[in-house]
Amino acid sequence: MENHKVTVRWQRATPDFDYKTYDRSHTWNFPGGQILQGSAAPAFHGDANKVNPEEGLVACLSSCQMLTFLAIAALKGYQVDSYEDEATGEVGKNSRGKQMISRITLRPKVTFSGAKIPDGAALDDLHHKAKESCFVSNSLLTEVILDPR
User: Same structural domain for residues 24 and 91?
Assistant: First the structure.
């Protein structure tokens, strides 16, 4: 079984630890040395210039969907030139009344070239198969809407 590790680090940087004023800045440290600056969402006193966990979740799903789509397209002999997704996540409440990312909408736009270009039905099938096979999508309770552009 494959495991994935990320180290998240936070250190108090203010003299107080008051809910409204403590600094929510932290780092996401990935194997290989990449470090991403994170914070809470602005609605929770975070820094809007840093990635928040909700944005990270949306990006994670979008990235997984894209990578799965690219793999399936390549295996079917299509040549993909570009893939762009304008993904959004909506905050809502679950059945227990707790906040959650209740819906993620993926809006991929894919450009192909070469002799074999998928028609509308084949493109829809590629998107559907990618959604059904994406590890992250299969891990979430969140509703995932696929709305190709």
Answer: no
Are residues 107 and 149 in contact, defined by beta-carbon separation less than 8 angstroms?
A: yes
62 with 123, same domain: the answer is yes
> By C-alpha distance, which of 106, 109, 22, 20 is closest to 61?
106
Contact in structure between 79 and 116 (CB atoms under 8 Å): yes
Neighbour tally for 38: CB within 10 Å = 21
In the predicted model, what is the mean pLDDT of residues 134-149?
A: 89
- Number of domains within the chain: 2
What is the pairing mode between strands 143-146 and 108-113?
unpaired
In the chain, pLDDT over 70 holds for what percent of residues?
Answer: 100
Domain that holds residue 17: 7-44
Reported as a single tens digit per residue, the pLDDT across 50-101 is: 999 999 999 999 999 999 999 999 999 999 999 999 999 999 999 999 999 9
Q: Parallel, antiparallel, or unpaired: how do β-strands 99-106 and 88-93 relate?
A: antiparallel
Establish if 2 belongs to a structural domain: no
Q: Residue 108 is part of a domain; what is its CATH number?
A: 3.30.300.20
Q: pTM value?
A: 0.91
